[in-house]
Structure formats: C-alpha cells, structure tokens
Design a protein that fits this description.
disordered N terminus; mainly alpha; 271 residues; 0% strand
C-alpha cells in the first residue's frame, strides 16, 4: 500500500511540476524581455552601443535595453487608417471652417488645368446642341464653284420669277406696288448677272488648271498669268461685249457720273 501511494504521489507531483513549468514559461513569455543592467549599458561607450545595435538589430536592441511591455505590444498593433475626408470637409478646412462669402474662392495652384475642350461637361452635355453648318469645320470648306454646280437650278428659277414679275409690273396700277416690283426686278436681274459672271470665272479657272496639267504632263514648265494681266484682259473682253450689245455709251455715261460724284465728295470734305 505504501509503495503504491508513494508512486501515485510522485506521479502527481511530476504532473504538477509540468503544469507549473508550462505556466511559468507562458508567464515568462508574456513578461518583459530581460533588460540589461542599467549600470552595465550606462557605462558602455556610445560607439560600443552603436556597434551592438548594428549586430542585434534595432528591434532586438531596444528590447534588450528598454524591455518589451504589454503596453508596447498594444501600441505596436496596426491601427486602422482613418477614412478619407470628403472634398467638402477639406474645402471647409481650407476656408477656415467659416461660411463667410466675403472673398473669392482660392484655387490651388497644384491642380493641373484641363486641356482645351477636356474640362468637365455640364449636365445637359449629352443633349445635341444646334450648330450652324456655315461656321462648322466638320462640314468642310465652302467651295463656290461646287455650290454653283450643285444649285444651278436656282438660276433657272430666278429667270422664271423675273418673267412673272415683269408681267405683274405691266398689270400693276398702285404706285407703291409698282415701286416694290421694280425693286424686286432690279435685285433679281443683279443676282442673275452675278451668277453668270461667277460661272464665267469658274470656266476660266478650270481652263487655266487644265492647261497647267497638260503642260506638266508634257514635261513643260507651267505658266501662271499675272493678276494685272488677267484684269487687263477682262476689261478688254468686257469692252468688246458692251460694244456688241450696244450699251457701251450707256456704261461710259454711268461710269462718268460715278467718278464725278466721288470727286464732288472729295471737294466737299476738303472744304
């Protein structure tokens, strides 16, 4: 009996010792890392401390010198990053937290200026805005020759309208209506005359371009007529045309009156 009791007591004591040793190990791990003696590291020169820090590393060196406490463990835990402040709060802080609108808003100089046309668009940017095709580069460049070729039927309509207006003028009795019809007839005749003049110029330009192309294809140097020569040739052709129509005297008389009116204006301004 005594031997069995002794065995059981010895086993119990060994078990208790094991649990005590494990609990002590846990407590020791939770306790501070043993520090160096205060007098020992205080007497060490600064150079030796630096060499010791290089060998051990900063973390182990600090633990050996200052120890590691539970508070330090809690402090070393990763803190959650604070949420980003909204733009409105940051603007309020920049303005000093006041709602006073006495001064203009300060714009930071660190923010890049957006490129032309790349700024923020408004709320109704998706809505198509009306645009004028005459001034829109997406429509291409205006070509008078192409326009006259595509809308040549307008000249035919003007000729028909001119005949109707002349018929109305013959039947008109009201003087105001007569004056209005004369004005419209004169305007229509001017438009028809200008259209035919531009068509003639278009044909001359095309003829000149064709001559230049033919000379280049033949290996010759192209010839470009001077502007003054073109104007002189145009005047000669106009003179011949007026002479054939029998309206040369009328044109000269009209030209003389125009020049005399200009001279009269110059004399009036001089006095």
């Amino acid at each position: 009996m005594d031997s069995s009791e002794n065995d059981s007591e010895s086993e119990y004591s060994e078990a208790n010792e094991g649990t005590e040793s494990s609990s002590e190990a846990e407590n020791s791990s939770e306790d501070d890392v043993p520090k160096l003696a205060d007098d020992e590291y205080k007497e060490m020169p600064f150079e030796d401390l630096l060499n010791l820090q290089k060998k051990l590393g900063t973390r182990v060196y600090n633990e050996a010198i200052f120890g590691r406490t539970k508070e330090r463990k809690q402090n070393t835990t990763v803190k959650p990053k604070p949420a980003k402040k909204s733009k409105q709060t940051s603007e309020d802080e920049d303005d000093g937290g006041s709602d006073d609108d006495s001064g203009p808003e300060e714009v930071t100089s660190k923010r890049k200026v957006p490129a032309l046309g790349m700024g923020k668009k408004g709320k109704n940017a998706s809505i198509s805005q009306p645009r004028d095709p005459r001034f829109d580069p997406r429509q291409g460049y205006f070509s008078g020759r192409q326009f006259r070729n595509n809308y040549g039927f307008i000249d035919d309509l003007r000729n028909k309208e001119l005949k109707k207006l002349k018929n109305k003028l013959e039947l008109a009795t009201d003087p105001e209506e007569t004056e209005r019809l004369k004005f419209v007839i004169q305007r229509t005749e001017n438009q028809i005359r200008e259209f035919s003049k531009q068509k003639t110029l278009d044909r001359e330009r095309m003829r000149e371009k064709q001559q230049v192309r033919e000379s280049v294809q033949a290996g010759k140097r192209p010839f470009f007529e001077r502007k003054s020569t073109k104007q002189a040739r145009a005047l000669v052709e106009r003179y011949d045309k007026l002479k054939d129509d029998g309206s040369l005297a009328k044109h000269i008389d009209k030209r003389r009156k125009k020049i005399s009116a200009k001279d009269r204006k110059k004399l009036d301004f001089s006095t």
